[in-house]
Amino acid sequence: MMPVGREELMSSKTFEATILREGSMCAIPLTFDPKAVFGKVRAPVKVTLNGYTYRSTIAAMGGPSFVPLRKSNREAAGLKGGETIEVRLDLDIDKREVKPPADFVKALKAAPPAWDRWRELSYTHQREYTEALLDAKKPETRARRLASAVQTIRARPERKTRKPGPRSF
Questions:
Q1: Range of the domain at 38
Q2: DSSP secondary structure string, 20-38?
Q3: CA angle at 70 for the pair 65 and 76, rounded to the nearest 5°
Q4: How many structural domains compose the chain?
Q5: Model confidence over 122-137: pLDDT tens digits?
Q6: Residues contacting 25, CB < 8 A, separation 6+
Q7: Is the pTM of this model over 0.85?
Q8: Is the separation of the CB atoms in 54 and 127 below 8 Å?
Q9: What would the pLDDT profile of 13-23 be if each residue is shown by its tens digit?
């Protein structure tokens, strides 16, 4: 098998898939090898379903690769789960960053080392904390979520950075 050169990689793939649903969990199974298409298995992608687009990362957890489908994205695309639909994946090359609300930033910075731990969080975790605050319907719910988030983030251990060099297993 010939190695795939960078110039041979595609930046998008359209395919048909049946949305898997088990309880509230949904996923889009991939019908192709993402490494051959995007250059790596866990590629960041923009997913388009029924005209609705969201950002995700291809998952590979010891079995076939898939794209997670959160309830909010499933509902926004008008899906219930179990449908067979056309899926479009585009390689997501845009920078992934979350702009947290000003009151959240202020609270994080006022509780060292919370701001440093926030900056170490993945895009997904930052997005989830931010969405939880923005989705609060009542001010007291938002205040409770903000306090809880700051406390949780502040208590996180510092992320260890990997040193470059050979890995030993």
A1: 9-91
A2: EEETTEEEEE-SS-HHHHH
A3: 120
A4: 2
A5: 988 999 999 999 999 9
A6: none
A7: no
A8: no
A9: 999 999 999 98
